[in-house]
Amino acid sequence: MNFVEELRWRGMIHNIIPGTEEQLAKEMTTAYVGIDPTADSLHIGHLVSVMMMKHLQMAGHKPIFVIGGATGMIGDPSGKSLERNLLDEETIEKNMAGIKAQLSRFIDFNSDASNAAIMVNNYDWMKNFTFLDFIRDVGKHITVNYMMAKDSVKKRLSADSAQGLSFTEFTYQLVQGYDFLYLRRNFNCLMQMGGSDQWGNITTGGELIRRKDGGEAYGLTWPLMTKSDGKKFGKTESGNVWLDPNRTSPYKFYQFWLNSTDDDAARYIKIFTILPPAEIDALIAEHQEAPHLRKLQKVLAKEVTCLIHGKEAYEAALEASQILFGNATSDALKRLDEDTLLSVFEGVPQFDVARADLEAGIHIVDLMAEKTSMVSSKGEARRALKGNAISINKEKIQDQELIVTPDYLIDGKFILLQSGKKNYFLITVK
After folding, report:
1. What stretches of 37-171 show up as alpha helix (H) in DSSP?
2. Residue 86: what pLDDT?
3. Tell me, what's the pLDDT at 159?
4. Which of 10, 30, 46, 267 is catalytic?
5. Is residue 429 a contact partner of residue 400, using CB atoms and an 8 Å limit?
6. C-alpha angle 415/417/423, rounded to 5°?
7. Can 30 be counted among the known catalytic residues?
8. Tell me, what's the pLDDT at 67?
9. pLDDT for residue 168
10. What is the pTM of this model?
């Protein structure tokens, strides 16, 4: 399959400018996507565009990532009801470095290949552009009527919109259109890609190129991602799912994909992995035979976690998952770092114990009945211990007179108590 056929099979094409497929078949083509530099990390909402560029590069074409340093100072009305927060230059530079480091894990920026990716900042060519120069050289080529016809503008000017549309935002499509023109002139970039909400901006850029330079311009968009329940993709109750392991632990990242519904997993595995079509079709068929085994979700979570965080982080996340739901050992528990441990045991009852008390030694019965509310009485604690129902750090307590000391601490500050198979209690020593 060629690049466009591949994307079509994966459900990653919403709209395409006529002639795009022919251009891609003809020669190595340079294409760009824009990335909003509002943070020093990407989140999984960016992953569709990144995977598009991954496929583009694998097909022999050249990706350009345009960091919207200038446009990040303006705000894009597309699909948004409010203007963005505007960023200063220093913040944008910091964010740009963080984003490039993440992308470099799976996009080739550094080889000598002719299609090695590049990253540029549109602030570099916009910062010396005066307002008068802009309205003379760019603004006069695109009519207000043309700009008003774009859906992104019409929505914000409709009677249903309470916010309206600032002049700053209204000019956004001209600024983005100029990006396309600049990239075509300076990098021979013939194509722009983006989410379906970017169609208006992409076609404005193509129109500007035709009117200014008389050249051809190509583009395609992908469908905006939603979950099968209609909710926004990439959001959890705690916010964005980030690619930065310090913002979203690899364990939580892995769990996000693992918890996909069957319908979502069947879509996601096509979009967010580079597994070949035949392998994906076989996986989906296998999953339909035995959906309770969640084979599709497991492969999806593995592939995406390995892609973003590497194999080692995936294996650690897998091991951490076994702690709650499998036969994990105390050794596996002790290997957890603090963030992962807190992620794994999010939602279980938690208690604080003074470090001085632990250093003096706490009888297991007192720990269960007084220092925590794991049981309602010392008698209940003793009965549970006699019944071999209590574990500390995943090891059954054999000694009913056990004195718990700092030797039992995980990562220097945690103790995990367990009653039966599923009842966990996390103690933090302070």
Report:
1. 47-58, 89-103, 123-126, 131-137, 144-148, 151-157, 167-170
2. 67
3. 65
4. 46
5. no
6. 140
7. no
8. 93
9. 74
10. 0.85
Other beta carbons within 10 angstroms of residue 326's beta carbon come to 10
CA-CA distance, 18 to 334, in Å (whole number)?
Answer: 58
Set out the domains of the chain in order of their start, with CATH numbers.
3-222 (3.40.50.620), 235-334 (1.10.240.10), 350-429 (3.10.290.10)
Which pLDDT score is estimated for 74?
A: 61
Q: How far apart are CA 244 and CA 253, in angstroms?
A: 10
Q: Which residue in the list 102, 173, 176, 204 is annotated as catalytic?
A: 176
The predicted pLDDT at position 76 comes to 53
Q: Is 46 a catalytic residue?
A: yes
Given this model, what pLDDT does residue 407 score? 94
Choice among 197, 198, 255, 270 that is catalytic? 197
176 in active site: yes
pLDDT of residue 72: 66
Catalytic one of 105, 127, 211, 232: 232
Told to judge if 197 belongs to the known catalytic residues of this protein, a careful annotator would answer yes
Positions in the chain short of pLDDT 70: 71-86, 159, 161-162, 235-238, 326
* Pair of tokens at residue 166: 């600032």
Tokens of 254: 């892995």
Amino acid identity, residue 1?
A: M
The reported pLDDT for the residue numbered 253 is 95
Please give the Cα distance from 351 to 368 (Å, whole number): 11
In the annotation, is 383 catalytic? Answer: no
**Residue type for 382, please?**
R
Q: Does residue 61 have an active-site annotation?
A: no
Q: What is the predicted pLDDT for the residue at 81?
A: 38
Active site residue 80: yes
Question: Is 43 a residue of the active site?
Answer: yes
- Long-range CB contacts for residues 261-270, cutoff 8 Å, separation at least 24: 261/227, 261/228, 261/229, 262/287, 262/291, 262/296, 263/228, 264/227, 264/228, 265/296, 265/297, 265/300, 266/296, 267/11, 268/300, 268/304, 269/296, 269/299, 269/300, 269/303, 270/9, 270/10, 270/11, 270/12
Our answer to whether residue 371 is catalytic in this structure is: no
